[in-house]
Amino acid sequence: SLCFEQFYSGHRSPHIPYRLLHLVWTHARHLAGYEQQDAHEFLIAALDVLHRHCKGDDNGKKANNPNHCNCIIDQIFTGGLQSDVTCQVCHGVSTTIDPFWDISLDLPGSSTQFWPLSPGSDGSVVNGESHVSGTTTLTDCLRRFTRPEHLGSSAKIKCSGCHSYQESTKQLTMKKLPIVACFHLKRFEHSAKLRRKITTYVSFPLELDMTPFMASSKESRMNGQYQQPTDSLNNDNKYSLFAVVNHQGTLESGHYTSFIRQHKDQWFKCDDAIITKASIKDVLDSEGYLLFYHKQFLEYE
Fold first, then answer.
1. What pLDDT digit, counting tens, does each position of 147-156 carry?
2. I need a surface site. Which of 85, 156, 217, 279 has the fewest CB within 10 A?
């Protein structure tokens, strides 16, 4: 595309994708302008705009399935999230599979402590920032994301087997993994009386194996037939880190930077138009807001 052609044209100054920015601003008016915006919100808006403007070769499939899309965005970023809701009475399971472009992960908040908060003009509190003693890992966040959740009496669902409303459990797993996996660490929390940034340090790996979080792994364990995945299957679930977006500052006033991997172990820090070399330690020590991994079969030297 023209965007990639301009990006790799060889000019020494950083490429600024004005046309892409204008396209996003045109279709996501709330992001237009130069006020502080959320990087995750912009990512989803950009993917949505490109998804709606890219035309893939559907080979007639779209006529039979309106939800099918073969555009470059879906080929790269779309995965399948499986939701299993199990009735606590008859143990019947209702399964749905939804597409996703990214996975938003909650951060632990049990040990959070807060800065003093100043009241806003509307009675809310602003500039809240939490500091958490201790750390967590990306793997821990994924375990919490995929562990069974009990839906209590206030969230009963109508069971097709019992033909009545029953309590249930819900569990999310990965049915299909995308080529590029984006993990969004939910560092910004908003409620009626509280707005804060969570600064918990999240340790994330250079290489990530998603096999334990696959629906196939869960089904094998439930049937008592769990076996070590074959090398080919396991490799298809393995990812390499290639980009990290960080947020510096507070919720009300901050700045985004990113780390980008060009070759296997060559990293660069992008801070607006200033691009400098970075070490792997710089990358892994960063706070992390958006983490981008690609499947290892795409590894490049």
1. 999 987 788 8
2. 279
